[in-house]
Structures are given as C-alpha cells and as structure tokens.
Design goal:
Protein name: Delta(14)-sterol reductase
Structural class: mainly alpha
Family: Belongs to the ERG4/ERG24 family.
Enzyme class: oxidoreductase
Number of strands: 6
Largest sheet: 2 strands, antiparallel
Strand order of the largest sheet: 1-2
Number of helices: 15
Bound molecules: NADPH dihydro-nicotinamide-adenine-dinucleotide phosphate
Order of helices and strands: HHEEHHHHEEHHHHHHEEHHH
Helix content: 55-70%
Pathway: Steroid biosynthesis
Subcellular location: Membrane
C-alpha cells in the first residue's frame, strides 16, 4: 500500500458501498454490544456539578465476541478476512468522512442543547472552527449511548481488526515472517490488556477533561487504528531478517515496557482507591496526603509514559532499521507524551500547589530518570 503511485492511490481512496457497510456494521455492533453485553459498571470521576457518569466496561467481551463472529463468518465464506487489508485505503477515507460528518452533527446538536449538566452543557466560544475542533459538549450521547466511550473502544478494537486482516493477508501471500508474528503478538497483548483494564480508562484525561470534537473523534477513529498499524502494512511489502539476539532484545524491550507501563498505571489506580495499600511490599510514601511518591511514581513523575514509549518502540523494532516509516508511531508518541506531560504538570501544579512543589523536590525526573 505504501509504495503505490498516485494514479493508483487516488481512485482507491474513494469509498465503495462495501466499505460503508463495513463501518455501519462495526458501529452498530459496538453500540448494541456495549449496551447489552454484561460487564462491570464503573462510576466515572465526579464532575464539577457533582454528577457521575456510569460506564459499562464490557470491551473485552465485546471484542472477543466480535472476533469469534468474524472468524465463523470467514470460515463459512460470508466475509473475507482480507476485507480490511484489501480495502484499507477506502476504509481510511470512509472513516475520515464519517469523522467529519459525525463532528458536524455533534456541533449542531451541542449548540442547540439547553442542558445545564457538566457532561452536556454546551461550551461555545463563538469561533466556529475552534468549537468544531475541540467540541461543544464533554460527554454527548446518542440514543443514551456515551459517544466518547464508544469511539475510544472503536479505535482500539479497530487497530486489532486491521492487524488481524493484515495477518490473514500475509498468510495468504505466503509472506508471513518472524517480524510480522512479533509485531502481531505485541500489539494484540497491548490491546487485550487495554480492555482487561478498561475501567482505568474511565479516569484518563481524554474521558474526563477533553470535549468531544473533531480532534478527539479523529484521534480515536482514524489516527489510532490507521497509523498505529503502519508497521503491519509495511511488513506486508518489506522482508526483514531478524537474528536471534535481535528477537530476544525486542522481546526484552516489550516485556520491560509492559512491566513499567502496567505497573505504574496500576499503582496509581490502587493508590487512588486506597492510599494505604503497600507499594512493592512497603507502606507507600505519600506527599501531602494526596500524591504517591514511591514505586514507579518515586522513580519519575510519569513512568507510565516511559513504559508506553518502550512498548511503542517494541512494536517497530521487528521492522528493522532500514526505513523510518515503521517508526512513525513511537516518534509520534514521544512528541505527544512530552507535550501531554507538560500540560499535566501545569494542571497538577495549579491543583496541588505546594504539595506538587514538594513532590517535584522528591522526584526530580519527568519521564526518564537522569535524562529527562
Ligand atoms: P496519567 O495516567 O499519568 O494521569 C495523570 C494524572 O494522575 C494527573 O493529572 C493527576 O490527576 C494524577 N497524578 C499525577 N501524579 C500523581 C502521583 N504521583 N500520585 C497520584 N496521582 C498522580 O495520564 P494520562 O491520562 O495522560 O495517561 C493514561 C495512560 O494512557 C498512560 O499510560 C499513557 O501512556 C497512555 N496514553 C497513551 C496514548 C497513546 O496514544 N498510546 C495517548 C495518551 C495516553 P489527579 O488530579 O486526579 O490527581
């Protein structure tokens, strides 16, 4: 796909009816499954008006059922497992058009809302482009479905479905390589782990602070599935020979990244629920009764970002170092997380004041100890 010339590329960007059907089926399935399949119901953070939203965390069930349904349909010849790999560009442009249409609809309905609650109150700056880009409402709903939660799920699941279709294509082509297997395994673990810990996402910045505009919708539905899978597309067209030490090193980067990422996020989650829970077998070091300063949170102020960056690197290393294209995701994530870490520090400095200043003295590094 990546080495197509423009004459082939442009026509294949025009969405066919089939790609529209794929998207419609996908969103209808996710919306219905999200509402009816069993899952732990989690209360979101307390919003400024004291209200709390409820999130049904059944993503893992929704995803495994979908993969099982698609697997059976593929076996029966009802759908082709290659549908995404063969129609990647069409699906990409259809998804982009969907993002534009849905955010225009959100803009119109948000402006006309008379709701005064924190989640639905309209925020209108008067600048049309700004409002469309950043969104009008915090947690808009459609048929009482929380659209933000739905889109976050759709993006992460979409990434796995694209990868599985790429895998099927490489098996069919006879080009399945060790690199492809490593890339697929690492991403699948990361995505499944995301849904195992889906409840943690209900307290992330995107869910609690960002309004639902083009920036977030595009990020969830287009950016995550289509750009995080670049390594897979690239491996379909490029052969890489990995040595045994390279495979071992790649696995070590993945495992260390996973341990730091999941360990740091879990420690913070547990600390917020019960600040007395031991960290690494010892009573936690707590600053001002509010901030955790031991475990991963005593090593650097955003060790979770460090783990995420190592994981991102491990998804690209199977592609070798002959091209920068497969390194798009880790490079993008590095820029995003450095920017996000700065914004988060500003927010925390304002919220925690002298407690935050004390935390900075105890834990001087932002992401990578002794470097940054
Ligand atoms: P964090 O999970 O790091 O949350 C930051 C918040 O945690 C702060 O605002 C503060 O909130 C609280 N906090 C900070 N330090 C402490 C401390 N020492 N003790 C207790 N609480 C603390 O940020 P994100 O929501 O940005 O990220 C969540 C995960 O998502 C991360 O692992 C990140 O890597 C990942 N992510 C992945 C992306 C991708 O594209 N792959 C993009 C963005 C994020 P409070 O005011 O509530 O105390």
């Amino acid at each position: 796909m990546l080495d197509m010339d423009l004459g082939v590329l442009l026509p294949s960007l025009i969405p066919s009816l089939q790609s529209v059907y794929v998207l419609v089926f996908y969103f209808v399935y996710l919306a219905v499954a999200g509402e009816i399949l069993p899952g732990k119901v989690i209360r979101g953070v307390v919003l400024s008006d004291g209200s709390q939203l409820r999130y049904r965390c059944n993503g893992l069930f929704t995803l495994t059922l979908l993969v099982a349904i698609l697997g059976i349909c593929a076996k029966l010849g009802i759908v082709s497992p290659l549908v995404v790999a063969d129609r990647g560009l069409e699906l990409l442009s259809a998804t982009f058009i969907f993002c534009v249409l849905v955010t225009l609809a959100l803009d119109v309905s948000g402006r006309s809302s008379l709701d005064k609650s924190s989640s639905l109150k309209p925020h209108v700056s008067g600048n049309l482009v700004h409002d469309w880009w950043f969104g009008i409402q915090l947690n808009p709903q459609f048929l009482s479905i929380d659209l933000k939660f739905l889109f976050v799920k759709a993006g992460m699941m979409g990434w796995l479905l694209i990868n599985l279709s790429i895998l099927a294509k490489s098996v069919q082509d006879g080009s399945l390589s060790q690199s492809m297997i490593l890339y697929q395994i690492f991403c699948a673990i990361y995505i499944l782990d995301y849904f195992v810990h889906e409840e943690y996402m209900t307290s992330t910045w995107d869910i609690i602070a960002e309004r639902l505009g083009f920036m977030l919708v595009f990020g969830d539905l287009f950016w995550i599935p289509f750009t995080f899978s670049i390594q897979g597309w690239w491996l379909l067209h490029n052969k890489v020979e990995l040595t045994v030490p390279a495979i071992v090193a790649n696995c070590l980067v993945f495992l260390t990244g996973y341990m730091v990422f999941r360990g740091a996020n879990t420690q913070k989650h547990i600390f917020k629920k019960n600040p007395k829970t031991p960290i690494w077998g010892k009573p936690p070091v707590v600053v001002g009764g509010k901030l955790l300063a031991s475990g991963f949170w005593g090593i650097a102020r955003h060790c979770n970002y460090l783990g995420d960056l190592m994981l991102a690197l491990s998804f690209s290393l199977p592609c070798g170092i002959s091209s920068p294209i497969p390194y798009f995701y880790p490079i993008y994530l590095l820029i995003l997380l450095i920017w996000r870490e700065r914004r988060d520090e500003e927010k925390c400095a304002e919220k925690y004041k002298e407690i935050w200043a004390d935390y900075l003295r105890r834990v001087p590094y932002r992401i990578l100890p002794y470097v940054y």
